[in-house]
Amino acid sequence: MATNASSTEDVPPEEAQPTKQNGEANQNNKPAKDTNAGHESLKYSLLGPSLTKAGQDSVDQSKVSEIIYEASKGSKFFSREEAKDKILTAKISHILAKKARLDKLDLTRDLRAADTLIAQLELSRDLTQHIVHLDCDAFYAAVELLDRPELADVPFAVGGGVLTTCNYVARKFGCRSGMAGFVAKKLCPQLVFLPLNFEKYNAKAAEVREVLAEYDPRFESASIDEAYLNITEYCAEKGMGPAEVVEQMRREIHEKTKITVSAGIAANSKLAKICSNMNKPNGQFVLPSDRTAIMEFMRDLPCRKLNGVGRVFERELAAVGVKTCGDIYGQRQYLNQLFGEKAYEFLMTCYLGLGRTSVQPAEEYERKSVGTESTFKDMSDPVQLREKLRWTAEELEKDMRRAECKGRTLVLKVKLHTYEVFTRQVVTPKAVYLADDLYNYSLPILAKLEQERPGMKLRLMGLRCTHLVSTKKPDTLAFFGLKPRRTESAGSADEQSGSPHAKRVQRDGEWEQWPEEALDGYELEMDKDGTSETREQSGSPFRRHGKEVLSNPTPKKAQSVPEEEWWDCPICSRPQAANERLFNEHIDLCLSRQAIRDTVQQEAALSSTGSTGTTPESRRSGSVGEKKRGRPAHGRGPDPRQKKLCFG
Amino acid sequence: MATNASSTEDVPPEEAQPTKQNGEANQNNKPAKDTNAGHESLKYSLLGPSLTKAGQDSVDQSKVSEIIYEASKGSKFFSREEAKDKILTAKISHILAKKARLDKLDLTRDLRAADTLIAQLELSRDLTQHIVHLDCDAFYAAVELLDRPELADVPFAVGGGVLTTCNYVARKFGCRSGMAGFVAKKLCPQLVFLPLNFEKYNAKAAEVREVLAEYDPRFESASIDEAYLNITEYCAEKGMGPAEVVEQMRREIHEKTKITVSAGIAANSKLAKICSNMNKPNGQFVLPSDRTAIMEFMRDLPCRKLNGVGRVFERELAAVGVKTCGDIYGQRQYLNQLFGEKAYEFLMTCYLGLGRTSVQPAEEYERKSVGTESTFKDMSDPVQLREKLRWTAEELEKDMRRAECKGRTLVLKVKLHTYEVFTRQVVTPKAVYLADDLYNYSLPILAKLEQERPGMKLRLMGLRCTHLVSTKKPDTLAFFGLKPRRTESAGSADEQSGSPHAKRVQRDGEWEQWPEEALDGYELEMDKDGTSETREQSGSPFRRHGKEVLSNPTPKKAQSVPEEEWWDCPICSRPQAANERLFNEHIDLCLSRQAIRDTVQQEAALSSTGSTGTTPESRRSGSVGEKKRGRPAHGRGPDPRQKKLCFG
DNA sequence: GTGGAGTCC
DNA sequence: AATGGGACTCCAC
DNA sequence: GGGCAAGTT
DNA sequence: TCGTAACTTGCCC
Ligand SMILES: Nc1ncnc2c1ncn2[C@H]1C[C@H](O)[C@@H](COP(=O)(O)OP(=O)(O)OP(=O)(O)O)O1
Ligand SMILES: Nc1ncnc2c1ncn2[C@H]1C[C@H](O)[C@@H](COP(=O)(O)OP(=O)(O)OP(=O)(O)O)O1
Ligand SMILES: [Mg+2]
Ligand SMILES: [Mg+2]
């Protein structure tokens, strides 16, 4: 139990700087402290990705770290982590070297560029909106607790092999999301394991959203247990303050759903997200919409708290002297060169505490991929692998049906027994979704992989479709503002096995049952003392905790919408609004689809604020919808839930 | 007469590289070749700014250079040029040093950024349009020749102190635009000097434009003697090829106006501009709208031929190994760091041979400044200087009346007897244009300047208004497409001495006569043997060869336009369309005028192609006007005549 | 925003 | 003896 | 566009 | 009890 300096807090270890001290150590030809220093960062890494985000601390991280380290030592997983840690350490010293070389250069240009950017960004600051980020407390655990009230005071976790979450009792022991079950058990031998019940979580999530819609009908579901709301309008109408509104909302959620939520209230979504973690669980935090208050808040905020900053980036930043967001300013002249344009701009907005002030329903975003993957016992037999691929393809077909789309490229993913991951993709001659197609097109690349590494032993296989084309009718949904969901899609346009199969049950995110594959059935039900050790079954078709795009529940009145006519694009076969000009525009667009897509994307990235790009979609907006200032009704933009490092 | 290597052609001298050779020379402590090397670049510089553009060569530049050098030697002007040359040489060695330091760095990121940019730009290539650049041959000279046919075969120039142009006979002697008269006389003792007659040039220019309107009613006047046309439509309608059309057009111009023009035909305006110089005079050149043809054309094109590349940039580029546009590619990883974002992007588009394919009438651009300046005998007496300032202010008032605008900031410019130039500006508490105001507001900054440099001796004084506010009614002119000019502006909105004084005579660019200031009258008429050396009088109110925005002549039918109503913005006092939404939008905008202006500007610069910014103006466009593909009816954009290095 | 430099006609 | 005038853009501060 | 690393829930 | 699954973005080649 090495009680080294600064290891009782969840702060990252100091980077071993190539200083004189280190040089001296090398002179001795004996890296005395190096073994230890190596452990430092590795141990920190082993703490897992969800470290600071979990909210509750007051845990002796050094003990936790030690236990995890001991539990992990020697495993293949550990080796892999070790290797990655080495690589990262090398990468960081490379960064530092580059910074040193950069220092010899004249950086005034970069400095001024940064200041210009800051000034420009500052102009875009909007403090007029009240954005709320809501996050359910220990969500899966909370849901499970409703059915198992006796677990209220005992530490328990949801998920077996890896914890998806655990209750706050368990967190006191150091248990966290993403932690291996057996490690958690070491940390907390009394820990109870519960299996996953996605239906329940989805149903509960729907209940919560039901309440949210009253406060902002255009709220944005950011994940199964999170949402953003813009309550500016609500506050104005009701003559209430934001904190007051959120208290009421949280009370109402608690009453109606019996679960507790935490909330952050701030001028933009990035800040709100950070704030929702401040008073977890069952609390809320208001960051005043005041420039200096925001700047001070950011100044002392550890970078790791930022939404796009994980273990790796945290270490890299710390190495160049950036630990808090306030530190960013002092290093602004390096950041572009060291970390690239995107990260640089992201960090700038973070330093300033800027973020999105728009909030848009999830169904206005375009899903970009559908996939499935599973872990299994090490496998190298080619026949078995083909069986597994077949099975994976069938799983994927189900998901594709549910998603109502096909894919034009197929990605095969494998993880070796060493935890090395490889992916290989093919573009299919046509958009596919049937298991047969998925299998037949992915088989060759699996074969090629086998050839590349003969006798490879797999622990995971996955398939994913990208370059999706929707088979849903309401492709242009967003153009006309929030259209109610009952499209029912009696489509004849894309007859190719049109799968009018997927009917959604209203508002609980369920769908018609698919024939449950009878499989390696571990239908485990863990008892409370956690003795019956069963492998988690993650192959259930209800395992979704990924992308499930549901309409926001309509709060009161259902608005009526005229029945539109649709024309199908001969190129992409997506239905289009029956308007000649628009249709032609779309075809033009489609003809150089990818090219234009890339261009637009890059442009959007370049021009940070306001400018709307050139797609016909964006051209269309502006005539209908909310005229609420600062909350324009966007057409399908990028997915704001994702923490793209880009501001906006 | 030093006949040094490579001095018989108009190529710039080699930069004295800081190579070993140079280092050795320094060891000798005797810069043996340095004196010579210094002369090289200085002589080249003395050749004047309009070197390669003049078109005709086959002149022994070494002789010319030598004569100019000898004629200039010892003058204050020469000293100043010498000093500037030194500074530039130093700057270039600084650039080279930076490049060397850059070489120690990892430039793969910059390299890839450049390649990405190239790819992106390539996507925007539009080869579908036929753009023509027309340029009158030796324009002023050609116009003068019509009245003096006996000068056909004798070398003559227009303008006294400095030649504005000269005929092609004179050019054989090395005479050029911008050359000092006395120098030209040394080069060509027989040279005849003619005084300027701006009325004639403007009238003739209008005649030419009359013809142009038949071929493209939306042609763009780029200067008094140049225009861009998009003849794609015309070609299609008439079933003629571009070369054929342009031949016909040039023939027609020659028949109707008796002057000859040269033309370049290419896929975009940048290329067309270059091409119009290829077969001057009275010739045309077609660059095939074929990617590889264009790339090859650019590959061997000296950078100096590019519209934004002058003497200085040419030398800087040559120093880093970029002499032709093809050379740009090899150095692309350095260009951003060495020359800045704008120059970098500009050079990239040049390497690719890309440029604007849009052409828009001049009246759709917004003038940004109005000014006047004049050179005089060295003057340091404060009283005289005040008189001069007073006179300048009065000149400016006239120009402001003609321009129908006021200015919110005032720029005083002085040139010392040493040719050093200084400017000082003030923002006026309100928009001004009256001579009294101009004088009273600029006097303090003149005084301050006098204080800064006691006893300063001036050779030039100028005043310029910027941040203009128009007092014309049709502020929103561009929104409704090309509106005919007869606005007549019986304005009552801005009553403050509304100056309904400026009435324009139709289509010849003249305006009502202002009381001619009786001044130091040198009403010179030079005789053909050029013995009577008189100082050019440039103070005439008809001296305009600057910005005179005239409507394109309407080719056949005059379109009728409904009489609009105008509301005046309480902030900027500019008239606005009488539409409540638009008006409110405008006011919002005005309230944070500068801030937003800057933002938009920067954004426009950032997002290179297509994206349209966020001003209400730009939002408005798109519903009316040409639906011609690739020729969108723009709202007031930036002035494309100006060679901003930005691609667009 | 200010001042200087470069560019073009 | 002696080197223009109007306008615009970009950059560094 | 392919492959991979990183981040988030 | 034996280190998840689904999804996105960004960088590099
Ligand atoms: N690494 C993970 N893998 C799979 N599922 C996860 C993972 N992390 C979280 N989840 C699931 C389970 C969580 O209950 C749910 C919401 O996550 P999150 O909000 O981050 O934590 P939490 O709601 O469980 O606790 P809290 O928000 O109180 O910290 O998402
Ligand atoms: N410094 C200057 N350089 C060039 N032209 C100038 C200058 N000052 C005034 N002008 C006027 C006179 C020109 O006739 C007119 C058009 O210029 P420009 O087209 O460049 O040359 P040009 O028409 O005289 O000859 P050409 O086009 O045949 O080379 O602009
Ligand atoms: Mg949560
Ligand atoms: Mg000309």
Automatic annotation (TrEMBL), chains A, B:
Biased segments, Basic and acidic residues type: 31-41, 526-536
Gene Ontology terms: cellular component: mitochondrion; nucleus
Signal peptide per UniProt: none
Segments forming a coiled coil: 386-413
Biased composition, class Polar residues, residue ranges: 18-30
PROSITE patterns: UMUC
Chief site of localization: mitochondrion
Region span, Disordered: 1-41, 487-512, 526-564, 601-648
Location of the UmuC domain: 131-310
Cell compartments where the protein resides: Mitochondrion
Family: Belongs to the DNA polymerase type-Y family.
Listed name of the protein: DNA polymerase kappa
Annotated source species: Coniochaeta ligniaria NRRL 30616
